[in-house]
Design a protein that fits this description.
Layout lengths: L2 E5 L5 H17 L4 E4 L8 E2 L5 E9 L2 E2 L1 H7 L2 E2 L3 E9 L7 H10 L3 E10 L18 H20 L17 H20 L6 E3 L9 H5 L22 H5 L5 E3 L3 H8 L7 E3 L1
Parallel strand pairs: 1-2, 1-4, 3-6, 4-7, 7-8
Antiparallel strand pairs: 4-5, 8-11, 9-10
Helix pairs in contact: 1-4, 5-8
Bound molecules: flavin mononucleotide.
């Protein structure tokens, strides 16, 4: 039996959460849990045995598991293999991401025995428009560890069993925030229908010193070797380049940042079941 963790995590929050969970599992079981980070790798072709345990994490994009995370994890095959799925979201809502993640792994032969929704700093968070800035923080990491320990206890006792991921419920934001966001989205969609506009990361060439960090962290290889050129068709707007740039030369303007910052600033706690 092996315990394996996999993540896809452009800005590192899904990776940090799964590491916290892995630590808890390791503490309870005394076993090493290996992490395979697929952020900069192609899809994995891997088959797991019936007695293995697989821990997965990935970001929520638009209320679902990010499509690229599915692409990268798409080569996994289980044989009834026990699997824990963890969606990491930016404090707005995880909506269908956890059930989406669960169905995705079930279709590939896994049995979902645990699920979690944790909060990570929103990809669009900036100093001017903070959204869950700094998360997962110490309290989140402690909760990740607690979740891991609960998984580890059940592995040790042989009692990991199928759960219903739909049992994890979003923590509702105040009604006024939800109404503000809904009105914003409707207006945004109307504007996009009238005159579509794509928001992409841009470089301030005065600030850019050509260090290449952005090129190295881009999960889709969308940034040209000079750190300036961008293949718009490849860019998934994950903001890895923005967050990694040591010069602050990269920014992504999106009208979502302000409305998210204004309406989803009440801290949401992680939720999990095992
Ligand atoms: C395109 C896009 C869509 C997103 N959609 C949501 C969402 O629906 N709900 C939410 O709370 N956060 C959303 N986020 C924020 C991310 O889920 C969050 O920042 C997550 O921690 C990023 O994970 P990573 O650090 O592993 O990349 C979105 C981010 C991006 C880039």
């Amino acid at each position: 039996m092996k315990i394996q963790a996999l993540t896809f995590s452009p800005t590192g929050t899904s990776a940090r959460v799964i590491e916290g969970i892995m630590n808890g599992v390791g503490e309870e079981t005394g076993r090493d849990v290996a992490l395979l980070d697929l952020t900069l790798k192609e899809s994995v072709e891997r088959t797991y045995d019936a007695d293995d345990v697989v821990l997965l994490s990935g970001p929520v994009y638009g209320g679902k598991l990010a499509p690229i995370a599915k692409q990268r994890l798409g080569g996994m095959k289980g044989a009834g293999t026990r699997c824990i799925v963890v969606a990491v979201y930016g404090n707005r809502a995880f909506e269908n991401a956890v059930t989406d993640f669960a169905s995705f792994v079930e279709e590939r032969g896994f049995t979902v025995v645990g699920a979690g929704a944790f909060v990570g700093e929103h990809s669009y968070s900036t100093d001017e428009t903070p959204i869950a800035a700094g998360r997962p923080d110490a309290a989140d990491m402690e909760e990740a560890r607690r979740f891991g320990r609960a998984i580890g206890e059940k592995i040790a006792a042989g009692t990991l069993a199928k759960i219903d991921a739909a049992g994890l419920k979003d923590i509702p934001a105040p009604a006024e925030s939800l109404a503000n966001f809904k009105a914003f989205v409707m207006d945004y969609q109307r504007q996009q229908a009238e005159s579509p506009r794509v928001y992409l990361p841009v470089v301030d060439e005065e600030l850019c010193n050509g260090c290449g960090s952005c090129v190295d962290v881009c999960p889709t290889g969308a940034i040209a070797a000079d750190g300036i050129g961008l293949d718009a068709a490849k860019c998934i707007k994950c903001c890895a380049c923005v967050k990694e740039c040591p010069q602050g030369a990269r920014t992504l303007y999106t009208p979502f940042a302000k409305v998210l910052s204004a309406n989803f600033n009440a801290r949401k706690a992680p939720v999990w079941i095992v």
